[in-house]
């Protein structure tokens, strides 16, 4: 399995780069309407869900296929909610994003625990999972925050999460090939 992850390290990097692009776009357009943010976030969650499902099918996530499948389905369901109900209020959107971040963060921590069984001292994915859970908890604690603050918080989370996944992908890529035999 680790050999397959090593050969497909670029999927981790691609997922991280998508997250970074999303974060940069959110920083660049802070006065975007909430409706546009709903669609932008929905696209991000959809792509993340598709990539998680791809990792489940190909076995590149370092976790059981069902964990990645569930993470992917939760992300796609959250995206569908954003697309089919674009008139959601800011509070409802924040709860949706918070729940998504907490659930995917928990699954990322589980994935990191599984990955630690085959790679010593691997903690990038665990940090990404902790960042996801912390982001969700912060949103739950202050759902009535200003729209600009929420955009910056979402953008910051996406960039940090993306950098951590890119770092994990590059770490896996740079590991000696003899470890995967």
From TrEMBL:
CC per GO annotation: plasma membrane
Signal peptide annotation: none
The protein's name: HdeD family acid-resistance protein
Transmembrane spans: 12-32, 38-58, 65-85, 91-110, 122-141, 147-170
Entry-linked PANTHER family: PROTEIN HDED
InterPro entries: Acid_resist_chaperone_HdeD, DUF308_memb
Annotated Pfam families: DUF308
Keywords tagged on the record: Membrane, Transmembrane, Transmembrane helix
């Amino acid at each position: 399995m680790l050999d397959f992850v090593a050969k497909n390290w670029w999927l981790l990097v691609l997922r991280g780069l998508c997250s970074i692009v999303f974060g940069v776009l959110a920083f660049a357009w802070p006065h975007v309407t909430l409706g546009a943010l709903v669609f932008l976030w929905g696209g991000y969650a959809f792509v993340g869900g598709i990539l998680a499902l791809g990792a489940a099918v190909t076995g590149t996530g370092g976790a059981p296929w069902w964990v990645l499948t569930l993470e992917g389905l939760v992300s796609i369901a959250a995206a569908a909610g954003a697309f089919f109900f674009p008139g959601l209020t800011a509070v409802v959107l924040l709860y949706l994003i918070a729940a998504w971040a907490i659930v995917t963060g928990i699954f990322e921590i589980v994935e990191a625990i599984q990955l630690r069984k085959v790679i010593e001292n691997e903690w990038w994915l665990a940090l990404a999972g902790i960042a996801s859970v912390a982001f969700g908890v912060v949103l739950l604690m202050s759902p009535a925050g200003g729209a600009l603050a929420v955009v910056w918080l979402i953008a910051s989370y996406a960039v940090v999460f993306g950098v951590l996944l890119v770092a994990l992908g590059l770490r896996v890529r740079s590991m000696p090939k003899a470890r995967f035999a």
